[in-house]
Amino acid sequence: MRSDPRAEPARSGEAVKTDKRRPKEQVVRGIPVAPGIAIGAIYDTTEAPAEAPRRRISEEEVEPERARLTDAVKLSRKQLGKLKMRLSVLPEEAQEELAPLLDAYVMMLGNSRLLRNAARRIGEEHLAAETAVLDESEAIAATILAAKDDDKAGLLRRAQEVREIARRLNRNLLAAPFRSLTGVPAGAILVAEELTPADAALLDPSRIAGVATEEGGADGHTAIMLRALGIPSIVACHGLTESAQRGDQAVLDGTTGTIVLRPGQGALDKAKEGLAAFAKERAKLAKLRQLPAITRDGELVELQANLEIPAELPLIAQAGAQGIGLLRTEFLFMNREDLPDEEAQVIAYEQIVGAMAPDEVTIRVLDWGGEKDLEARAAGIAPTHGGPNPALGLRGLRLLLKRPELLEAQFAAILRVADKGKLRILLPLVTTPNEVKQAREIYDRVARRLRRRGVALPEKLPPLGVMIETPGAALAADAIALEADFFAIGTNDLAMYTLAVDRADAEVSHLYDPLHPAVLRLMQFATEAALRLRMPVSVCGEMAGNPRLVPLLLGLGIRCLSMNASSIPRVKQAVRALDIDDCARFARRVMEQSDPERIQELVMGFGQPATDKAKG
Ligand code: PEP
Ligand code: MG
To answer: How many A from CA of 520 to the centre of ligand 2?
Structure first.
């Protein structure tokens, strides 16, 4: 007989957490995304019940509401599909426990009474989708519980299965950060199945020792956010939520990508040594702050910071960044139900530009959609129906050109702080020169309108640049360069779109490889297009913050790198140890290769004494 894992409404993983199946010390591996060591107690975040206020709708809202429900069903099926794929990494007993449960959930997301009647309630009772799902699930649960059957525990279990799937649907319908992270105890290691970029933006790095998630990829926006916050973190830890229990002691290593649950004394001692060594290295790197980023043969390299949230400003100052090379403005639009107006944006930009002056700040206009599709829909920016593939849909500049009032407000706000420092503006997810032309027309129109209103703007407007982050933009870089004032190469999306690998999907993370020759060739093509026109070009994807990649990037002709602030000292150290001629030679050698593994080998072996195997 199987135990009753669903006696309490809880995550599906609760079933396997009986002590006899829990080994004493257990190591779970994932992808390291933010370095550092954390020792603390596990705090696993089960999602709070999605409590939407009861809501009625009008006749016109019936169809959009049904479409929302369809979307939420799709998303829920996808989530359950992923959970099913993970089953194979669990102990056999756990698999036997969970597989039928997941099957039951999936069935309820098919042609079930729950969905049929929820859709009917939307149309006939004019209920919002959340309310309809909740009412119908409660009605079904009541029928089950009233059945004449001696197996009361069985009835309760079935009723709870219905409630659980309704909860999942409603969480997805709400499409907002539905997890409260405010109650995480100080010093805890946060464990979650998945963390959205918006969730990560709410984390307080002074309270949270570490983060480990089941989902995610190394260069997903959540990973970027965690790196920016300097919280030791790992993603794609398969099986973690099944093995970790709230209150368990754990050691997380964000450099090697391991989390040791219930560590023995040996592991604890090792972690303490690691902590001390990490602090020592930090202190050593801090000394580099005042030194220039200059190669041994005198070539200056500009090292700038990427900024996700204003809380990072002190870190950026500490790191000695020469300005902000990528200000992701999404933070202004996250975790809120309305849109920030022009005034609110002016205040935010003024604070950042003022703090950085006289150093340059490159403000990227809103890059909503894609991974941040749910937030964009919740904010009412993107259509409520997300489209079949958000990463290929209305994202970045496309969305802004479709909603020009958003772009106009953002351009206006940025231009209004142009006299507070040195500014540049960056357009995300461009694929054609015409998109840049259209954006520039709006930009010029906004500037004319502000001037008419008496706002003093510099005679020469801040440069308008383009993110090169799609293969289309990279291959059309020569034409796009004629419309742009500068390029910033976004290697995160460039790798994703080139290799057809979602950057945040743990299932395919082994295929995500920015060193793939296809990605490098696109980078080279775009860089050369810019350099031919003597146009500034930088790299602002996660590649820029990896000291091992510096020789290759410099060798390709890049002289400006923008990265999360905490990477700057290590990258500076790498720059100061290099000769440009060596880098150029090295890049030529790398670019002759067509095997990604060989390129990895070359990059990792740079500067090491050559072995027979490493000779290329
Ligand atoms: C990129 O795609 O490389 C990039 C810098 O943009 P983001 O990570 O914000 O998508
Ligand atoms: Mg991008």
So the answer is: 16
Same fold, 59-173 and 297-615: no
- Tens-place pLDDT, residues 26-66: 999 999 999 999 999 999 886 555 567 788 999 999 999 99
The minimum-distance atom of ligand 1 relative to the CA of 328 is 9
Q: Which fold has domain 297-615?
A: TIM Barrel (3.20.20)
CATH T-level assignment (fold) for domain 59-173: Enzyme I; Chain A, domain 2 (1.10.274)
Per CATH, the homologous superfamily of domain 21-47+180-261 is Phosphohistidine domain (3.50.30.10)
Please name every residue paired with 300 in a beta bridge, in sequence order, or none if there are none: 294
Nearest to 487 by CA among 362, 329, 392, 304: 362
> What residues line ligand 1, using a CB cutoff of 6 Å?
224, 326, 328, 367, 469, 490-493, 540-541
Give 215's contacts (C-beta < 8 A, 6+ positions apart). 82, 193, 194, 195, 235, 236, 504, 505, 506
Of 238, 516, 540, 560, the active-site residue reads 540
Window from 126-135, 140-149, 267-276 with minimum mean pLDDT: 140-149
**Which sequence spans correspond to the domains of the chain?**
21-47+180-261, 59-173, 297-615
Q: What is the pLDDT of residues 432-457, one digit of tens each?
A: 999 999 999 999 999 999 999 999 99
- Give the closest residue to 213 by CA, choosing from 231, 195, 201, 198: 195
Instruction: Indicate if the pLDDT at residue 90 is higher than 80.
Output: no
The closest residue, in CA terms, to atom 1 on ligand 1 is 490
Q: Nearest C-alpha to atom 4 of ligand 1 is from which residue?
A: 490
